[in-house]
Known about the structure:
Residues 89-339 form the ABC1 atypical kinase-like domain. 42% of the residues lie in helices and 14% in strands.
Amino acid sequence: xxxxxxxxxxxxxxxxxxxxxxxxxxxxxxxxxxxxxxxxxxxxxxxxxxxxxxxxxxxxxxxxxxxxxxxxxxxxxxxxxxxxxxxxxxxxxxxxxxxxxxxxxxxxxxxxxxxxxxxxxxxxxxxxxxxxxxxxxxxxxxxxxxxxxxxxxxxxxxxxxxxxxxxxxxxxxxxxxxxxxxxxxxxxxxxxxxxxxxxxxxxxxxxxxxxxxxxxxxxxxxxxxxxxxxxxxxxxxxxxxxxxxxxxxxxxxxxxxxxxxxxxxxxxxxxxxxxxxxxxxxxxxxxxxxxxxxxxxxxxxxxxxxxxxxxxxxxxxxxxxxxxxxxxxxxxxxxxxxxxxxxxxxxxxxxxxxxxxxxxxxxxxxxxxxxxxxxxxxxxxxxxxxxxxxxxxxxxxxxxxxxxxxxxxxxxxxxxxxxxxxxxxxxxxxxxxxxxxxxxxxxxxxxxxxxxxxxxxxxxxxxxxxxxxxxxxxxxxxxxxxxxxxxxxxxxxxxxxxxxxxxxxxxxxxxxxxxxxxxxxxxxxxxxxxxxxxxxxxxxxxxxxxxxxxxxxxxxxxxxxxxxxxxxxxxxxxxxxxxxxxxxxxxxxxxxxxxxxxxxxxxxxxxxxxxxxxxxxxxxxxxxxxxxxxxxxxxxxxxxxxxxxxxxxxxxxxxxxxxxxxxxxxxxxxxxxxxxxxxxxxxxxxxxxxxxxxxxxxxxxxxxxxxxxxxxxxxxxxxxxxxxxxxxxxxxxxxxxxxxxxxxxxxxxxxxxxxxxxxxxxxxxxxxxxxxxxxxxxxxxxxxxxxxxxxxxxxxxxxxxxxxxxxxxxxxxxxxxxxxxxxxxxxxxxxxxxxxxxxxxxxxxxxxxxxxxxxxxxxxxxxxxxxxxxxxxxxxxxxxxxxxxxxxxxxxxxxxxxxxxxxxxxxxxxxxxxxxxxxxxxxxxxxxxxxxxxxxxxxxxxxxxxxxxxxxxxxxxxxxxxxxxx
Length: 966
């Protein structure tokens, strides 16, 4: 070994690093002056030159640098081809050590002469690696073995190499802050010395072999998640000598021999990947060094992989194993909330103002393998996205260079990521494509199986421990347990008011399929189209405050809306789903669903859309466009932002701060329930044909496709944070029930929610910051002419000021957008509008128990399109003005409300002063919700709404013909 002294090794390493750094920096400066064709040739020549430099120094120094070179040679997915071509030579044997030295080590370690231990010892080694060399031998008892012997003096060299590597990484991080590899090298410094103890390797080999169930004969009965690989049996070990069973095989990267044997390379690499998935997720201990030199392929059919060298292994704690499983599954499902939870459990800290970065990073880790050219394109795309993200943050040069979305990186993840990268490199070398999701998902799910199946049978705390308010609530909890045991419920909340008092407030189940934390009373559920009932209420609130009229032309309120023949569309047409805009935004969602997150873009599309018919002629459910039609009306009629009106009209007066949002602010991630789909219900949808009351873009086939993709889309934080006033309400059942309890009494605010409910309703204040910003004269004049004149007379003397909405995010950045604000209607507020929200449920302005959020005595008629409002709705239609009309079996109207796709719902029976809401995260077609509503109404001797009155809840065909779930 070219040991030299420690100083010489250090000089060689640092000299190489500096030369390569200067070489690359010089070309970066020169390339801008040459053509693209010459530029590519220059880079290729530079890569070749530096790869040879690296190879030369690695061969001279050996030790840990050989392992690093072997690792680099497998990264065909990320490194230039020149490096792969040159460094692949390191996968062949290095120069052997003298046989005399090898035999002396064996005799010293085992305490016996060679002749007493071996019948035959082959002098030429099978392989020479960075730490040891391997000889074939025959024991005195006739067993064929291999003997692994550690190089003399290698321990001190390895430790010195790690110090040098650490110094180089520190220097690179200082010179180029975006390339900070300290977490990686720190983990290597901790784990690599463990390879020097062969007793540890022997234990690891035996343990992993047992975990994988390795044997030479394939069992007839194959258990679930089993793997078909071989691992040599351990015969004997000391700290520096390891004797293993000999297994005859072909090297994995000997593609010619594999071809001659007829080996299925795809199946081979898939089985190796399965073996690693088993090691990581089932056994919790895995080989951290899966480079091609550590695999053989048995020569006899079925040509099984042989796994070698378990020196560098990683033992995972139970919590880390579960965290890795949750991270993988959440990434696959597109579940930002569960992903951030898993990353936090493992010690990651991501900047919360960049939630999509967490998903991007994990998607990069778990991406499928591909040929090197495709990998180059994929990584180039990822880097381009990162560049655009940095540009959007408007960082200065120093901040940009040091920008990193990860604030903390756990050491355990380093070896895990390295394994996935090596496996991906292996796939590139073997020229096969591996779908890591399909292979690894069953193993990851097995880790969480106890949590996935953590229903009422196995979890005594499945019903969250809150007081029981009534006999009917006690009985309801038994029903929920039955439904949970039938796997119909994942997480759920049910809240009901009768005569203004809370009679049910129950939470049960888990936050998500891969998030076993319990649902609590303040958990926030996405309620999809139940949001429409809230949005419609905001339009009515503006009408009630004389800022808008139901028979007013939308274009008179919203001038940009006038284009393309929409002059005749009135506010009541929008609320009654008769505007002819039922398919508006359908093309936008097909083009790119994430465009729905752009509020201004959606309003612009609605304003430019062409109606498909004359207003008032046909009632077709405006499944998506309803929200932005109403949202545009709200903002243009008030001159204020949508969320401000929501806060002032309902959130603060009802004391439901922190539990009702349309578009969540940062900081609520831990309280979000995550969506999944009831696959049993989903499978039944294929038998349903079409419905004539739904738009052409929202037929059962479209719904089926949506339900397959909605969870992955709506679980992401960037979608949750967007304002989608048709489909993105996030609330607790108790907040939604309180809203409908107030509406049931004509807008009278109910008594405070039960103080026995913990945490208290309204105890999660959301306090946005409003910064004064100069108003341009044009917008000032427009507001004075429009919304300002519609305000209450007591505030007309106050100056209209424009503000900038700024949410203070983790990491110190602020996400700003201009808002046009008008004074608060409540004259008791300060004229300085820098604080537009209160700080808790105790501060509700003048909106106390018994006061009203609506003044119109005929407000119920307005909601239902009855009485004086009857001429504003489509005759015999399902909808009133913004709300679904609730009927009893005899056809009489008993109330109003709105449901959402997936099962969440809220409605009130105004005649019986009854309001109820159900929030769920396991999306179905309403059978669970129907059972619950039917049960509660029956227990209270109330009329059961016809939508819920079928035997055991509506069957699927009926629910799609006359939906309770919109």
